[in-house]
Amino acid sequence: MSSQLKASSESPERRQLPQTPTRLTASFGGRAVWIVLSLSAALRILMLFDFCKSNPLAGFVQGDPGVYWQAASRIASGRFVSDTPFQITPLYPYLLAMVRLLGGGLTAVFLLQNVVHLFTGFLLGRFAHARFGGHVGLVVMSLFFLMQEPAVLVNRILPGSWQLLFLASVLSMTNAYAQRECFRRAAITGLLMGALTLLYPPAILLVPVLFYQVWRGKCLPDTSGEQVIKPVKGEPFGLSGKRIKHAVVATGVALLVISFATLHNWLACGEFIPLTAHAGITMRQGNALGSDGRYTPITGISQTKERMHEDTQRVFYQETGRVGSFREIDGYFRDQAWRYMFADPIGAIRLMVRKAYWFSTGRHYGDIYFPTLEQQDGWLHWLPLAPLPVAWLMGPAMFGLIYCAKQRRLSLLEFSTCLLPLIVVVIFWYSPRYRFPIVPVLCLWAGAAMANVASRVVREKWRYAYAMSILFCVSVGPVVTAWNSYSGFDRADLYRDVYTYNQGQLFAGLGQHEKALVYFDRAYKHAPDRYLPLSAMTTSLVALGRIDEAIETAHQLIAAHGGVQEAWLTLGGLYLRIGQWSKAETAFRSLLDLAPDNSPGHFGMWIALASSGQSLAGSSYLEKAVELDPLNDLAVAEYGLWLARTGDVTRAKSYLKRAATRLPDRSDVREMLHQITAREPPSGFDTNPN
Asked: Sorting pLDDT into bands at 50, 70 and 90, what band is 230?
């Protein structure tokens, strides 16, 4: 190393680029690689076939997956810009829309994601081979295909599989740039980084790391394990102006790709929102009184993104008295989280440590999917052939991190890729989805550690010490996850009630209400302190025409949860469905006695009274409903129609305009607005509504 530096300083003519070792440039292939790929492809085909045949999730999506699928439908129909800024991963719905434009459905998406998964494993193995040589690439690829969570997510409408593909692509392309520095490779690296950010918004923090990585250059290990220097012709070592230009190109291309989301958000709402507009509420959900490191519900805000923004607008209005912009609402909830942390710094630090522990050891908990419970229910028959949870690779990966650091083979980009998901979890809250992007680096470091220890066990006298060290690291994960389950920290059956309720909602969405009732009943028996299963049971019973049972269940709900506002809403809504207006009025009056400022309760009173011919008596409730919640589109529409019929045309016009925009299917609203705009007497005009 010193002789190379000396030669470099003596004369430019003597500086020669050291010969790149053959093992770093050799293609990644061979019989063993193709055998692993073929076996993995066969396993994925079996898992996909089993999933489509036996798992109802293959035919229906709900929650966040449903939001992605609906967005893809909108995009496929030609509406490329939404009415709101991105509150989901920006690029993923456009990828789904491409499948829908080609006539594909859910199965086609799952098949495509399985192909993406296989290519990611190959790309990751190829990158590991280039970084470490030998059989490390084969080990890393095998570890990736044995991991449980990637095998589950390929058959979900979630962006995880694509995130891993672009993470592996960025790492691989950065290494390719290090081998041959040129503008084209720098630009491709920036393009991949931009696409990664659109699939994984926190990756925007990796853009400065990419700039440094390209500017600094990457040393390549030779066969002896030392570092060889890659000087640029005519430039002093380490201060290459050419590299700086390449770094600017890579960063500029990445930011240009990211600006796609920024432009969309500006067109949608006229606000500068670089990527997504939900970071504040997500941060608040993980940092509040009662937070335990996982998702913490906020009163009045739905758990799904379908209604989350409307709910946050409503809560913001109720607490501030004004309708806020997207940035204001996002900042409002983010400030709440910061205030909670600064009010109790010691408690906040403890909570962060708890989140980090969840990140390192969590296995069974999920905020959307529960593969352990699905496997117990016989819905994932082939999943045991992908047996490695993410938590089990944490120990070997830490061993590999130490090994890479000692050998000076640790890339800043690789380390940042590992650190970023941990930062996300610690700041927000633990979810398997938030931890998921760490998978490529875990496989890389764990594979490097195992291959290194295997070679040392064969060659060196301290072989037993090395063997025991890796054995310890490998055993840490299973032991800790077993302890978590035994102690109740992370036990699968703790989530049985939520999982069973979600399955009931799934069958209800498929129209299989008899099955849905079975799951709702099980969910209620698992957690009788939750009102949601009984509420959902009434809806399914009405759908089946079993009205008497629905009423009985609603009264059972009131008896068990009479102090819960939603229980009275369920009872009142049930009576509205079956046309028993007086009983609905009684239920809503009980609700308003419990919560006088409940906007849905006031709106329910309006419907009950208006339907029974008491519109004038109900108008005060309708006005109060709109006052309490000006974002309730149905109440706004009804109020606009009422004002028009009572002759208050000026006020009616503004409400009808809002309703016509938000409720395009309401023909009565459009017709009334047209009559007012044309200055024609509104139909049904009655100066004496009673």
From this structure: very low
- Tokens, residue 629: 């919640």
C-alpha closest to that of 604 among 574, 630, 646: 574
- Mean pLDDT to the nearest integer, 157-182: 92
- The full DSSP string for 262-319 is HHHHHHHHSS--SS-S-HHHHHHHHSSTT--SS----TT--SSHHHHHHHHHHHHHHH
Other C-beta atoms within 10 Å of 377: how many? 14
pLDDT interval class at 164 (50, 70, 90): very high
Structure tokens at 496: 């049985």
Q: Averaged over 296-323, what is the pLDDT? A: 81
> Which value, to the nearest 10 degrees, does the dihedral of the CA atoms of residues 359, 363, 366, 372 take?
170
User: Scanning the structure block, which residue is given the tokens 């925009």?
Assistant: 661
Burial readout 625-652 (b: 16 or more C-beta within 10 A, e: otherwise): bbebbbbbbebbbbbbbbbbbbeebeeb
Q: What is the pLDDT of residue 466?
A: 67
Q: How far apart are CA 619 and CA 583, in angstroms?
A: 19
Closest CA to 61 of 377, 304, 278: 304
CB atoms within 10 A of CB 402: 14
| Residue 563, burial from CB neighbour count under 10 angstroms (0-12, 13-18, 19+) | exposed
Nearest-5° Cα angle at 64, 61 to 65: 35
Alpha-carbon dihedral angle through residues 586, 589, 595, 596, given to the nearest 10 degrees: 170
Q: Rg of the Cα trace of the chain?
A: 30
Measured over the CA atoms of residue 581, residue 585, residue 588 and residue 590, the dihedral's sign is negative
Distance of CA 294 to the CA centre of its chain: 14
Longest dimension (CA), the chain: 102
325 vs 329: CA distance, rounded Å? 6
Task: Enter the pTM of the model.
Answer: 0.86
Q: What angle do CA 643, 565, 511 make, to 5 degrees?
A: 85
Q: What is the pLDDT of residue 17?
A: 37
* Residue 186 near residue 249 (C-beta atoms within 8 A): yes
What would the DSSP string read from start to end of 644-690? HHTT-HHHHHHHHHHHHHH-TT-HHHHHHHHHHHTTPPPTT--SS--
Q: Is residue 390 within 8 Å of 435, Cβ to Cβ?
A: yes
**Whole-angstrom distance, CA of residue 179 vs CA of residue 24:** 9
Residue 352 reports pLDDT greater than 90: yes
What are 517's two structure tokens?
């009732």
Highest mean pLDDT among 7-21, 266-280, 448-462: 266-280
- Distance (Å, whole) CA 176 – CA 211: 15
pLDDT of res. 131: 84
pLDDT value of residue 315: 85
In this structure, the dihedral spanned by the alpha carbons of residues 523, 528, 531 and 535, taken in order and rounded to 10 degrees, is: 50
How much of the chain exceeds pLDDT 70, in percent?
89
Phi, psi (degrees; rounded to nearest 5) at 228: -105, 145
Strand 227-228 with 220-221, pairing: antiparallel
Using the predicted structure, report yes or no on whether residue 462 has a pLDDT greater than 70.
no
Q: Distance (Å, rounded) from C-alpha 413 to C-alpha 298? A: 36
Q: Give kind and range of the element (H or E) at residue 221.
A: strand 220-221
pLDDT in tens, 416-458: 999 999 999 999 999 999 999 999 999 999 998 887 777 665 5
